[in-house]
Amino acid sequence: MRQTVCVDTQPGGLTPLDARGKKLRQDVVDIFEHSRRGHVGSTFSLMEIVLVLYDDILRIDPKNPADPKRDRFILSKGHGCLALYVVLADKGFFPADELCRFCAYDGILGGHPEAGKVPGVEASTGALGHGLSIGVGMAVSARMDRRDSRVFVAMGDGEINEGSVWEAALSAGNRGLDNLVAIVDYNKQQSYDTTFEVQNLEPLADKWRAFGFAVREVDGHDLCALRAAFGGSPIEPGKPTCIICHTVKGKGYAPAENNLSWHHKSKFTDEDMAGLYAAFSTEKEGA
Amino acid sequence: MRGRCLNMVHKLAKADERIVFLGSDLGFGTLKQFREELPERFIMEGINEAHAIGMAAGLAFDGRIVYVNTIATFLTRRSFEQVALDLCLHKANVRLIGNGGGMVYAPLGSTHLAIEDIAIMRALPNMAIVAVADAEEMERLMPQTVDWQGPLYIRLAKGYDPIVSDPAIPFVLGKGMEISRGKDVLIVATGVTLGPAKEAAKLLAETGVSCGILHMHTIKPFDTELFLDMAQSPDGGVKAVISVEEHTILGGLGSAVAEILAETPFARQPRFKRLGIPDVFPDKYGTQNQLMARYGIDTKTIVSTAQALLA
Q1: What is the CATH number of domain B2-155?
Q2: Could you tell me if A127 lies within 8 Å of chain B, comparing CB atoms?
Q3: Is A16 helix (H, G, I), strand (E, B) or coil?
Q4: How many angstroms separate the first and last alpha carbons of chain B?
Q5: Contacts of A137 in chain B (CB under 8 A)
Q6: Which chain A residues touch B63 with a CB distance below 8 Å?
């Protein structure tokens, strides 16, 4: 296996989870207990990115989710939706008891998020490579209104194999959309194998720079680093921003970390569930 | 027709600040005046249709009404998933204006012929499809597109097509248009095939055959009620129904008619024939009219088909 990039996290993760990261992962595990399915690896690699955006960055009001002046967040890698769902529930966009009906026949929370069904979800995603174009449209729209709304689009590393992402990047760069932030959840794994083996993205930061973005690379599980990166956008006036978040797929649950077979599970065993609950238990810490 | 359509977008945009125009590397000087007068709402993207559709969706999610224009095949084939998900799933108020519907680009070959665009769009929930007969009818259509709810595909013909529409008959987007009633044959046309349908009805009348004409400018939603009313009356209904479209006979107007005929009990089931392009990529170039004649999308074939069905 080729390894052509230095990363500031290692398998297992150097950055320990904080209590909030653990609690939200516990909420995800509670969902798994009901659904017995879900994208484990992507959800856990994305968790800190989403929680920092909603805790510290996005100007949004759960009581007025359609406020035209709000910032927009598009989860382009829709399969990471569980990270978004637990944060939206935590913020009060919808009642938390909805979480246990994930993928249920009459639930609102599907295996990929849908706008119009889930309060707080800006765009229906799941088919990869759609979110950045939608974000470009939203960013242009904000500019037309002279609104200072910002648009954040989170994409997977595998997702950016899609050509449409680079069509959107070309457009965003040429338009100088400095109210647009492209976030790459760079966990280095896609479905079949590592990103290096399937479709190597390197040199990734240079690619975004070449498309006209100002780029910053951070540890995607370091809350302070994420706050600084998102809060410091735009990095350069007149340029869209790309934040490459180096993450660990399955972060926090050792058997799932960097384990390709944990990309998606359609049937959790009782043993899996016991392990997941143990991994995110806060009892020992007295929390 | 295209010029009239785009000029209408400009006119409508001047009166309604929700309206945005988004082109994909259109011809030099397209909508120059729009660009000069309303530069912020004139967007010219590159040759990136999938992105352009997603971008239009993002603008529409903010309450804007976005008119997207490029070649029909690239709006339907190239960016199908964006049309399906970003537009149809979200019921986005985006209007897709497809240049060269049917065999307009005959000299350019199959890469540019939009001969299955209606079938593609018909399969998508929430998508509406409209194909007007001429430039004057386009002017009557366009104001009604502004407040249409959800995505809309507007199929453009060649331009400078003969004016065959009748301003005395009200144009209502979302409904069929009854041109005339007849007791023997009902001809169902859409887009530019209204012209040959009218000519054929006239020729058949001279031979004693009474033809009704239904101009189904809005192919989806399909005005089933009007179609059945015209097919079933008077006196137990027509003896034959002919659909005629500049499109493959799979999945378009003829298929819509066939589906209704197959599922509706008639006192006397009418004979039925779809006129259109067979299940092929056209193997000739030449002109649109030459290809239309090759596949029997013309007056002569409508007349002979009616005579054969009545025989």
Answers
A1: 3.40.50.970
A2: yes
A3: coil
A4: 38
A5: 54-62
A6: 68
Same fold, B2-155 and B177-310: yes
What order of strands is seen across the sheet that includes strand B271-277? B177-180, B211-215, B185-189, B240-248, B271-277
Is the model's pLDDT at A286 over the cut of 70?
no
Size of interface A-B (CB pairs under 8 A): 93
Q: In this complex, do A144 and B56 lie within 8 Å of one another by their Cβ atoms?
A: no
Give me the CATH code for the B177-310 domain, please.
Answer: 3.40.50.920
Considering the four listed CATH numbers 3.40.50.970, 3.40.50.150, 3.40.50.10090, 2.30.30.40, the one that applies to the domain covering A19-279 is 3.40.50.970
Classify the complex by whether its ipTM is higher than 0.90, answering yes or no: yes
Q: Give the pLDDT confidence of A156-175 residue by residue, as tens digits.
A: 999 999 999 999 999 999 99
* Cβ separation B55–A114 shorter than 8 A: no
In tens, the pLDDT along B80-128 reads 999 999 999 999 999 999 999 999 999 999 999 999 999 999 999 999 9
Q: Where are the domains of chain B?
A: 2-155, 177-310
Spatial separation of the C-alpha atoms in residues A86 and B113, rounded to whole Å: 48
E strand spans, chain A: 72-75, 151-156, 180-186, 214-219, 241-246
Q: Are B41 and A144 an interchain contact pair (Cβ–Cβ within 8 Å)?
A: yes
Q: What value does the mean pLDDT take over residues A267-285?
A: 84
B64–chain A Cβ distance below 8 A for any pair:
yes
